[in-house]
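Team,

Forwarding the record for the chain on the shared tracking sheet. I've put the sequence and predicted structure together so nobody has to dig through attachments.
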Amino acid sequence: MDLRPHHLFCLRFYRGHGYNEAFCRNMDHVLSRLNAGEEIRLVSGCDEICFSCPHRNGDLCDAQEKVLRFDRKALELLKLRPGGRLTFDASKALQNALVFRPGRFSEICEGCEWQTLCVPLAAELRE
């Protein structure tokens, strides 16, 4: 499954909230596939989550600069590269080891409209 690097965090903290019903159904479907063990391939463009996002404009996001910044920071903090492959469980382990313990999560998602939902969940992981 193709995923943008920062979406590894979006999926980790997804709790049924989204832009609309179609987006939430897609997130649920993506999560079920990942939890069943489907492999992730990190991509730098639109991915499985973008498919049903109202901010998608063809192969780009309406907030392209912002999501590219999120992706770069996620790759940097997780020590991954575009095209890299991993499982969702491996992604969560990397997040725990490299991002949440040092408390660097907010560096990735600065400016994200969903940050108020995710930051408290990330804080719980640090404890």
